[in-house]
Amino acid sequence: xxxxxxxxxxxxxxVEKALNCEVGGKTKDGRFELKTQRCxxxxxxxxxxxxxxxxxxxxxxxxxxxxxxxL
Length: 71
Prior knowledge:
By secondary structure, the protein is α+β, with helices and mostly antiparallel strands. It is built from two helices and two strands.
């Protein structure tokens, strides 16, 4: 099942809101840049996210924010 079928669009919107940053932009403090990318070919584990070249699977907003706090 594709990430888009697992709620990727809603996920991206929630990330934009949480970071107060649109796709293609950076957070006000410049720490994070929000980008989308092509398929990571791990559909069975979606929603998938790369953070500094490290792949994270089965992502949701809560998990993402926890990962970003570690940086």
